[in-house]
Description:
Blueprint: H1 8-19, H2 23-43, H3 46-57, H4 61-77, H5 79-89, H6 91-109, H7 115-144, H8 149-178, H9 180-201, H10 216-220, H11 223-252, H12 257-281, H13 287-308, H14 312-341, H15 346-375, H16 379-395, H17 405-410
Helix pairs in contact: 2-7, 2-8, 2-9, 3-4, 3-8, 4-7, 4-15, 5-6, 5-7, 5-15, 6-7, 6-9, 7-8, 7-15, 8-9, 8-12, 8-14, 11-12, 11-14, 11-15, 11-16, 12-14, 13-14, 13-16, 15-16
Amino acid sequence: MLQSNDDPGAQVRSMDGAMRDSPRAWRVVAAGFIATFMLFGIVYSFGAFFRPMAAEFGANRQATSTIFSITAFIYFLLGPLTGHFSDRLGPRPIVACGALAMGGGLVATAFVTRLPMAYVTYGLGAGIGVACCYVPLVSAISGWFLTKRNTALGVAVSGIGAGTLTIPPLAAALIRHFGWRDAYLTLGIAAAVGLGLCAALASRPPAAANPTAAPVSQNLRSANFALLYCAGMLWTIATAIPFVFLIPYAEARGIGQISAAALVSFIGFASTAGRLGLGALADRMGILRLYRLCILALGLSFGIWLSAAGSYFMLAVFALTMGASYGGAVTLTPAVVATLFGTRSLGVTLGVLYTSSAFGTLLGPPLCGAIVDRTGNYSIAILLTGAATIAGSFMLAPLGRTRASSAQQDFA
């Protein structure tokens, strides 16, 4: 049907459609890659700082690891707030705040005199930094793309895997040569500059085509959102357990420290491939089906770990399988939300969904740790983690059978 030149709404929709999938849209993808590279590369390098910080302050493992727990809990919980402001103001000012928080928090951590001070400087600084950058950027990318959304998101969040591969060994080298304080000072300055560049590249996506899209409250009350939220609490447990327990598991079976640490690098490498490859694959097959398959594969991968019995080869196979499926699931989550609910108010919808990860990552590792402490082995903990993830994948079986009307309107 031909649109009248006198219809300003049609002209706006035509302009918005031309802007999407454009070179300007790919600049936002570049911002997403740089941000995830720096944010998660720095956060996942915390293990390199663990021993020198604990030694200087005379702290035990529980007290030192609390720094990381506070950080993760904050950035997951603040997602709805940063998503809301991003929907209203655009991503640029929110990402700029994240650059200041991340850079300032790391620099301040370099000068703490007591460990609890790091709960505030690092926990709040890094937590707010991730929250202000991740959700606003992935929701903006979703709004900037129509035909290549899954590929664009895959490229953007592949920065997580690339950062995990690159920054932890860099941090270890900085600590070895200059000490942990100067290492945080260096990373803080780099984070402020890099994330400031991301803020400059980030721009607000074109308005959704139909202004009558359903309000966010309707999305959050839907059956589809309830399924995503409950499943998210289950499958995100599996994304935390290997980062906490895989290295000590391997070392307990006689595998050397460097070789054991390399298993985490395998996860980072495979997650990068998963984020890129599965994002593109979703453009060719049903995204909801692929999402469920990724989570199912993530759960089944723990069967490989359970049967490894100390075999380094099998542990490497687990790390690669887990990393690829985990990377794919993380990549597809924003695209699944956009498919089901549309891109209007996507930041808030996605941010609320990510609070499910806050509870999964907060409860999973301590529970598994308690099981290992009581039983003296990892088998039950590994089995329960895999079973919970598989249950999450089956929970998503009805997902999308009743599509949210907002998604249909958004792309009308």
